[in-house]
Write a structure and sequence with these properties.
Bound molecules: D-ribose
Largest sheet: 5 strands, parallel
Mean pLDDT: 97
Shape: globular
Strand order of the largest sheet: 2-1-3-5-4
Low-confidence stretches: none
Order of helices and strands: EHEHEHEHEHH
Distance between the termini: 27 Å
Structural class: alpha/beta
Radius of gyration: 14 Å
Number of helices: 6
Length: 149
């Protein structure tokens, strides 16, 4: 898969580790930065990854900030993005199986590198189950329409 990755200054070290891990699993990574520990603004990176995924330039995205929350909110403002924040592998699996999340987020201040790898692997290996879940995904799209997104 082609995976878009982005992060803020709170997560640069973990992003670098996860980027190598994801490549080691055989995926291609498109890195949107930041690649330094200089203070920056997480909405910028959430939007960049969200737009790449929504445009079909990447199959899915991985976002990391301090908590995973701020950067996920930014990504979810892009029409077509379904980004979930995970601190465990079970949630990571379920956001793909049930919510068809096209972006995974987590927090570098919340999960350590081992758990982060487990979360990423669970998310990447899971598949959307469709069926009744698709009806609910369609409702997300209806909400976007009513919100003018
Ligand atoms: C940056 O200090 C921090 O606010 C950010 O990484 C993130 O946790 C926001 O949700």
């Amino acid at each position: 898969m082609r995976i878009a990755m982005g992060n803020d200054h709170a997560a640069t070290g973990l992003k670098m580790e996860i980027m190598e891990y994801v490549k080691g699993l055989g995926h291609e990574v498109v890195n949107f930065g930041t690649d330094t520990s200089d203070r920056c603004n997480y909405p910028e990176f959430g939007e960049k990854v969200g737009r790449a995924v929504a445009a079909g330039e990447a199959d899915c995205g991985i976002l990391i900030c301090g908590t995973g929350v701020g950067i996920s909110i930014a990504a979810n403002k892009v029409r077509g993005v379904r980004c979930g924040v995970c601190s465990d592998a079970t949630t990571a699996r379920l956001i793909k199986q049930h919510n068809n999340a096209n972006v995974l987020a987590f927090g570098a201040r919340i999960v350590g590198p081992e758990l982060a790898r487990d979360i990423v692997r669970a998310y990447l290996e899971a598949e959307f189950e469709g069926g009744r879940h698709q009806d609910r995904i369609n409702m997300f799209t209806e909400i976007e329409g009513r919100s003018g997104l």
